[in-house]
Amino acid sequence: MLMYMGPFPCYFTIDPVIIKDILNSKLCRDKSDLTYTGVINALGKGLITMKGSEWIPHRKLLNPPFKVSNQITFLPIFNQKVNGLFAAMDQCGYMENSRDILKFCREFTLNISFETMLGHNARAKNIDTKHIAKLVTHITEYISEIIFKFFYFNPLVLNLAHRTIFRECRETIEYVKGEIDKILKSFSTGQHDAGYLENLYTAIHCLYESLENNETPREIIISGMIHLFSGAFETTSSSIYFTVLMLAMHPEVQSKLFSEICERFPENDDGNMEVTYEHLSQLPYLDMVLKETLRLFPVVPQIARQVSGGNVRLSNGVVLPEGLNVMLNIFLLHRDPQIWGPKANTFNPDNFLPCNVEQRHPYTYMPFSKGTRNCIGMRYAEMSLKVTMAKIIKRYKFSTTAKIEDFEWENHISLHLVNNPPLTVERR
């Protein structure tokens, strides 16, 4: 279907067969200038926005720290940092607005991201993660504004907005860039501060090696780390939050999940058990719950590509001309009744029973995208989510009067609720 974003024509589809054609085509590797120029203006150039010719070597460069064998070394951090989330959630009880839970999740994943992406302990470096977490919502709104409001395509208007209404967002982004630059300088001098985590191999280690070999410019490394860092903490924190909401709304699912976790971790440990890599494959219902949450609430609800290097002929015979923008709406794909049935908007982890998964096209579910430019951090997100949710459910019981049909959504690059519902948090 052809539609327009302002004056610009776009090909829009939620057909999984066509989506597969597009995401696996070498001529559709480039991200759309229409949407991702705004991300470049906000965060700089990085893995999310690079064109195919730049993206391929940069992606290969970053593969080593994202290998499963390396990410297993992050598991002790995932386990240990949940204690900070526990300390915040222990004080909750009844909440008229669950926005604080999302804020706590962001503080938690910010701390994880500093260690697993930047190789440094945020507290030891005196990084105010609470303050940064408070600004995250404003930053995602800012990025959304400069993408979807076309008058910001004018450089004069955008520069004026950066100095005025978006000044605090710009200052926060520049502050994080400054911290990344300090870490790069510490590698070059060999003089690390007290927050340096010596035994980890993180993305910034990998990129510093590229800098030393004159393979990647310093400014690309800094902005590229902003992309990875932002993606790591924002998507994971939102996914934790949405999972908690779904469990609160569906006590029967929460009870079944609690039983699975107690069977695997029978000790009365109040959520302080150590979740290992072996445990992750032994919690099938947790896996189903997380996948169903990401089906209904894909944190990145829409992705866009641009046809480059020639025309693309799709399997249905449609020809996409070079230069055309292509919009893939993951949110609508994941709620399509023709794929998920008449109750497509209902939370049902049984959608991910093996027998049901086998009957669906593999491109009907893609919270981390798919094809040649799928999310490099997919396994990272899955591992951190499973560890965190296993420990949270062992410790807390959640309830709410909210109903999913009452939710209102906003697309601020990541998926946001307009109004956060009430929530009750009880220690088990």
Automatic annotation (TrEMBL):
> Which residues hold heme?
375
Q: Which InterPro entries match?
A: Cyt_P450, Cyt_P450_CS, Cyt_P450_E_grp-I, Cyt_P450_sf, Cytochrome_P450_Monoox
Q: Does the keyword Oxidoreductase apply?
A: yes
Q: Which Pfam families match?
A: p450
Q: Which top-rank group of organisms is this from?
A: Eukaryota
Q: Which cofactor does it need?
A: heme
SUPFAM superfamilies listed in its UniProt record:
Cytochrome P450
| UniProt keywords, alphabetically | Heme, Iron, Metal-binding, Monooxygenase, Oxidoreductase
Spell out the molecular function terms from Gene Ontology: heme binding; iron ion binding; monooxygenase activity; oxidoreductase activity, acting on paired donors, with incorporation or reduction of molecular oxygen
Family in the record: Belongs to the cytochrome P450 family.
Q: What is this protein called?
A: Cytochrome P450
The organism is: Musca domestica
Phylogenetic classification of the source organism: Eukaryota, Metazoa, Ecdysozoa, Arthropoda, Hexapoda
